[in-house]
Amino acid sequence: MLISMEKMLKVAKENKFAVGAYNISDANIFKAVVEKAEELNAPTIIAIHPDELSFVTGEFIAYVRERLWNSPVPFVLHLDHGGSVKDVITAINHGFTSVMIDASLLAFEENIAITKKVVDLAHTVGVSVEGELGTIGDTGASIEGGVTEITYTKPKEAKEFVERTGVDTLAIAIGTAHGIYPEGFVPKLKLDLLSEIAAEVDVPLVLHGGSSNSDDELRVAVEKGIQKINISSDIKKPYFAKLQDVLNNDFFWEPNTVFPPCILESKAVVEDKMNLFNSVDKVKYFN
C-alpha cells in the first residue's frame, strides 16, 4: 500500500521504531529494498533525489507507484532533498506521497518562508512535507551534498520552525554527513542535543546521513526520538562493488546472471538496517 509520510511516521512515533528511507536510482536497488521489506513485514520509505528522478524518468516512477500500491506492506514514495518549489511540484505530479524541501542553507527566515510555501501547496493535495533545519555534513561521496562545517540544529529554533511552517517531519543536524565517511574518521552524534530537540518538537524527527554511523549510535538515536533514517551509500556501495567483482571474474553478460548477486548484497544491508531501526514486523500496526 502507498501512504503518506505523516501517517507512517505517526505510527512509528507511537510504537517507538524508526523507518528507513532508502534512496533508489534503478530497478535493481528498488527490487532489493521492496522485496526485503515484504519479506520482513517492515514499513519502508522509497526515497528518490531530484537527480535520480531526472535519470529514471516518470515512466519508471509509474512502475514504482504501481508496485508499491499493490504491496501488502505500507510504503511512502518520498522526494529527497527537493531544492526548489519546482522540484516539489514535479514530484507531486508524478504521484509522490511525500516531499522534502531543503532550504537549510538559507537564512532562518528564508528557510521558513519557502518551507511554508511548499507546505501550503503540498497539503492541498494530501502530500506530506519534510523540512530541514541545520546543515548536514558532506563527505564528497554523495549526490545529496552538504557542507564542510555542520551547523547544529538549535532546539528552540526547531520548535519555532515547526510551528510557523506546519511541516509534518523535521530533518535535524546532530553530527551526520552524507556519503561514506573517509577511512579512519569516526562520526560522533550529539545525542544529548537530539533529546533536547525531541523535548521541544512534536513532529517526527529525521536523521539524514545515516550511512556509516555506528549501530550503537543509531540504535540510541531511535530510542531518543528519531523516526526516519536516510540510507543511500550503505546500500549502493556493496551493490556496485559486487557488480565490479562479477564483471571482473565472470564471462556472463546477461542481466539475469550479472545482477542477482548484486541485489543480494543490497538486501543484506537493508535487512541489517531494518532490524537496527526496529521496523521488522511492524506492518501489524497499520492494519
Q: How would you summarize this macromolecular structure in one to three sentences?
A:
With 287 residues, this protein is α/β, with parallel strands linked by helices. The protein contains eleven helices and ten strands.
Write the layout of secondary structure elements.
Elements (H helix, E strand, L loop, with lengths): L4 H11 L3 E5 L3 H14 L3 E5 L1 H20 L5 E8 L2 H9 L4 E4 L6 H16 L4 E6 L3 E2 L16 H11 L3 E4 L4 E2 L12 H10 L4 E3 L7 H10 L1 E6 L1 H17 L5 H4 L1 H17 L11
Parallel strand pairs: 1-2, 1-10, 2-3, 3-4, 4-5, 5-7, 6-8, 7-9, 9-10
Structure explained in plain terms:
It comes from Enterococcus phoeniculicola ATCC BAA-412. GO terms for molecular function: aldehyde-lyase activity; zinc ion binding. Its cofactor is Zn(2+). This is Ketose-bisphosphate aldolase. Keywords: Metal-binding, Zinc. There is one protein chain. The chain has 287 residues and is an alpha/beta fold. It has a single domain, classed as Alpha-Beta Barrel (TIM Barrel), CATH 3.20.20. The chain has an eight-stranded parallel barrel with strand order 1-2-3-4-5-7-9-10, surrounded by nine helices. A two-stranded parallel sheet has the order 6-8. Helix 3 links the parallel strand 2 and strand 3. Helix 4 packs parallel to helix 5 and helix 6 packs parallel to helix 7. The longest helix has 20 residues. It is globular and about 60 Å long. About 4% of the residues have low confidence.
